[in-house]
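ping. complex inputs:
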Amino acid sequence: MSKRIIVLMLSVFVLISGVFAAGQQDAAMDEGPKMLVINSNQSDPSTKAAVAETVALFQEEYPEIEVQLNTFDHEAYKTAIRNFLATEAPDVAFWFAGNRMKFFVDQNLFMDVSDVWKDEDLYDSMSSSLNSLTINNKQYGVPWSYYQWGIYYRMDIFEKYGLSVPETWDEFMSNNDVLVANGIAPVTIGTKYLWTAAGWFDYFNLRVNGYEFHMELMTGKASYLDPKLDKVFDLWGDMVKRGHFLENHATYSWQEAQAPLIKGEAAMYLIGNFMMPDMESAGVIDKIGFFQFPIIDPSVGVYEDAPTDTIHIPAKAKNVEAAKMFLAFMTRPDVQDIMNPGSLPPSKYASAPDDRFKKAGFEMLGKADGLAQFYDRDTTPEMAKAGMEGFQEFMVYPDREDAIRTRLERERKSLFE
Amino acid sequence: MEKKTVNKLLKMQQKYAPVYFLAPAMILFSIFVIWPIFQSIWISFHKWDGFSPMTWVGLKNYRKLFDDPRFYTSLKNNIYWLVFMMLAPLVGLSLALFLNQQIKGMRVIKSLFFFPFVINLVVVGLVFSWFYNPDLGLLSVLLGVFGIEPIPILADEKMATFGIIIAGLWPQTAYCMILYLTGLAGVNTQIVEAGRIDGAAGWQMLRHVILPQLRPATIVALTVTVIGALRSFDLIATMTAGGPWGSSYVLAYHMYDEAIFNFKMGYGAALAVVLFLIMSVFIYFFLKRMIDTEK
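pong. complex structure:
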């Protein structure tokens, strides 16, 4: 009796699993050519909504393509992408330009999309981003967004102490001294996750030594012991010693470091334009102003950090045709308008930005002599990690400059030579 | 004749039944635990970024380990973790002895003491980072009462590791306490009575009557704490991310960082192997004790 029951159960189980397996197979066959899988890292509410709107518009125009959009958490995506590119690749993946992209191109995990650039004439409309997406004269992705870095400041605090927007380094420093004397932290920063410190390094090096040397350093050709960097660390260390940065910054994340600015205990923040939605929800956006990182050496060209966000087609994509259609769609000026609620559209033909921060950024970047991506996008991941840890340490113990630079130089040698 | 075969079958069944019953667990254990161990050892002899083909480099990854200052930082911090986490069984025992009383409301108090163990470690890490926050944290408020300036514990290279260990002790102590509470429930009252008649009390009673009976609980508490201390990772990732400037790294976090973040699978695997070797020393020791007591 009991045996019979077991046999019965077993056969039912086998049958059911068989049915399921067959069902899955059918589903896979049906999905076949029409399904377009997109993996996105845009998990912030405003951009997440923008991606959803864009995808809906795409489906409206191409009803024969069914889109499956997978949104990942922004930080978790950075590790997840390595898995899915090598195994179950989507048809379109969000990522970043520059060295971050090069890493996957070197592994043959991103597809050459030069034909999309040619067909859509992106060489014209996206000319400003061409460099950061080109390797060996081929393009491996298309840009959909970029944003400016610069100094966001509390206009009310500046007014209270009679300070004006600094244009030269001396003005900047004397402003800071006034703020310190009045018990206000001139610059807020949270270096717990390191990269915010790299923003300062980028700007010091770009303002003091210019783009070419900065890029040589990023690509491992220049040394961290190069005397050209002495002035960078001198100026930076001077700020630290004069108490110009928020105390205990190594405890805070970049978001936590917004608090002193919002509370009016700190006056400035060197950060990207992505901070603006937070200022708006904190209700202080009307008190916030923006200015360009002050000029240090007028004989050096003006270069800015402007990280570009991109989309790519993985080499293992199943539906390349639809993926290319989506890439082309994403470069359309009207779509780029939708995609950039807080940042700037890279397309020349997108409409001019409407809010004052985007406008200021657009103008500043338009006049720049050249754009860098950002320390952790321009150099390799290992070098970026080591470098940013060194910068964090320097911002607490500027006297350790020699030891830190020697350590970075050893790291650079082991990575690039 | 027929009876004989049946007997034989029964015997065979008795002989092989353990095999059948153990097989599923053994197979899963081999695939998901034993096999990855050998795989890691194999990978540690290669240079591999996770995508491209592996290249054999022999012992190069291990040689590199000994030139890596961060490896020594991690090792040193792991030793701190091991030593100071030993407070968990100690405090856990004291708490268990204290809570093991028949007083009204004790159940509620017990569950309150057990509460930290139920919380996810990531949450514990977040709670403690807020507690330590020099700007808004409870700790700086408490220190302020005594007129002491706020101390940025997690941003200080000398204090960060200890700050994290204290956060780790919180749930671990609760866990050890529960282990000892169950142990105390199983203490033979007759022996305690006998001891009392012989005039034992206080420390003597604890040392010679209670503790020997708590031995199994102690072994479990120590094993769990040692392994917990060696693989500490979640708290470091949430509280300092290894910082400031890498001063709170431990081997497990270093391994994660090299393999997942720097794409150096071979080097990460070498770190994993070293960690495994350190753990095996303890595991061997505890296993031996366990087998000896079973005998």
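Chain A touches chain B through 26 residues (CB under 8 Å).
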